[in-house]
Amino acid sequence: MISVAMATYCGEKYILQQLNSILHQTRSVDEVVISDDASKDQTAQIVARFIKENHLEETWHLIVNEHNLGFNGNFFSALDHTHGEIVFLSDQDDVWLSDKVKIMTEYMEHHPECMALSSAYTLIDGNGDPFSEENKVLNAITDQNGNIELVSVDSQIVCSRIRGCAMCLRRPVIRKADREHLSPILGHDWALNMMAALLGENQILHQPLFQYRFHGDNTSLSAVSRKTLIDDTEKRKTALQKSIEAHEWILKTKDQYPCLTDRDAEEIRKAIAFERKRLIFLSKKHFSSWLSLIGSLKEYERYYHTTKGAWKVYFGDLCYAYQINFKIR
Q: Which of 4, 104, 301, 327 is 20 to 30 Å from 16 at the Cα level?
């Protein structure tokens, strides 16, 4: 059984195009679960009307949350209501190519060791035109060489470069992605990608199978669409603390994961130590602590995957600690 889990929130502008792209796949899905997070616009009504007009009541299901669960909580809610052994994640504003489900499902069926498979994608803007500023989208997976890339546990430590909307995964990944310890504050995509790598093979197919829409209202891109340089310092501190706790939990439960090596465990310990240093600086605000972190630039780059990302987070820590803020657009 193949399922799709979609999370929606105030997505009336683009939702119909995505619903149609899922409906008209060359290999049909067996179930679609759409969890709407108490939208303030007509998103839920549009979805309900689409289901009714296309006579999909038996296989497409709309859940409307009474209270807002937040982006990650809403995705987990959608996942928890699916029944398929293979589950695709879907954003509300992307566009799937017609053979996305067929290609990815066939690969999963022929590779039972693969616990999660992600695809590459092309970038489009709010009008559906090719996005001309790719450098704004950090860690975008847009390679088109058709190769398969193995995603290691090591590469998921602290930060995943794989967006959830690119993924399909097996049921055990959903069951094992603990909601309490793999905190949603880190992102459902991080939790699922890390768990897939811990349980088996996590892979990327470098073939674009959907159009990823980059626009100012993306919920998943709130950091890059923010109008000011920094947000709330307490949120950053909380995120670091939750990240530390999540990685500590992986170590505490390491016997459950067949793909967690001793080397991986040691790298996780190093990451915990690094994040504690950052948390101490943000809490105590000693400038000397920040200067000492410059010796950790390799760690910043390692965990945030690019030199640009490393410098951004490093100077971001300074700005958050001392509340240095200004408009960026």
A: 104
H/E stretch holding 311: helix 307-322
Show Cβ contacts of residue 69 under 8 Å, excluding neighbours closer than 6 positions.
Answer: 37, 77
Enter the DSSP assignment of 257: -
**30 burial level (CB within 10 Å; 0-12, 13-18, 19+):** middle
Comma-separated ranges of CATH 3.90.550.10 domains in the chain: 2-223
Helix axes 233-252, 307-322, angle to 10 degrees: 120
Instruction: Kindly list the distances between the CA atom of residue 69 and the CA atoms of 36, 37, 65, 139, 326, in Å, as whole numbers in the listed order.
Output: 10, 6, 8, 27, 30
* Residue with the two structure tokens 């890339």: 149
Q: 154-171 burial, b if ≥16 CB within 10 A, otherwise e? A: ebbbbbbbbbbbbbbbbb
From residue 306, how far is each of 123, 134, 187, 221, 266 by CA, in Å?
19, 14, 19, 17, 22
- The pLDDT tens digits of the residues spanning 266-310 come to 999 999 999 998 898 888 888 777 777 777 778 888 888 778 778
C-alpha 272/C-alpha 238 separation (Å) is 14
Q: Are strands 60-64 and 31-36 parallel, antiparallel or unpaired?
A: parallel
Q: Give φ, ψ of 223 to 5 degrees.
A: -70, -40
Query: How far is the C-alpha of 119 from the C-alpha of 96, rounded, in Å?
Result: 11
d(CA 246, CA 178): 10
Signed CA dihedral, 258, 168, 9, 229: sign only: positive
The yes/no answer on whether domain 2-223 falls in CATH 3.90.550.10 is: yes
CA distances to 26, 34, 135 from 85, in Å = 19, 17, 36
Q: Give tens-digit pLDDT for 171-215.
A: 999 998 877 676 656 788 899 999 999 999 999 999 999 999 987
